[in-house]
Amino acid sequence: MIVLAVFTGNCGKKSVPAANKEADMVAQKYIPVTVIDFSGLDGCGFLLVKSGGEKLQPVSLPDSLMKNELKLWIKFIAEEGVGICMAGPMIRIVDAKTKVE
User: Fold this and answer.
1) Model-wide pTM > 0.70
2) Domains defined for the chain, CATH in brackets
3) CA proximity to 99, closest of 49, 34, 36, 52
4) pLDDT digits over 69-89, tens only?
5) Contact call for residues 57 and 89 (beta carbons, < 8 A)
6) E strands, 20-89, in order
7) Cβ distance 41 to 87 under 8 Å?
């Protein structure tokens, strides 16, 4: 009797280091942000905070992204005007991806 063992795993799949993923996202014009709930400030809700502390006011943030301290990669375009919150420039999110750390 011959017994064959089949092994599954990461054969042929290469793990991509986090630094490479980050470089790829930056090369694709994404920026890292953290969603923060600023509803305690007059006229504010969820804002996006860049790593340097700059705040961005999304014109509309999908409900699925309204999670305090959610880390994202976003592409956006600047919007004209000033929001009620006045905590930073108004933006429209073009694409968003969850940032895996």
Assistant:
1) yes
2) 18-98 (2.40.50.500)
3) 34
4) 999 999 999 999 888 898 899
5) yes
6) 31-37, 46-50, 55-58, 71-78
7) yes
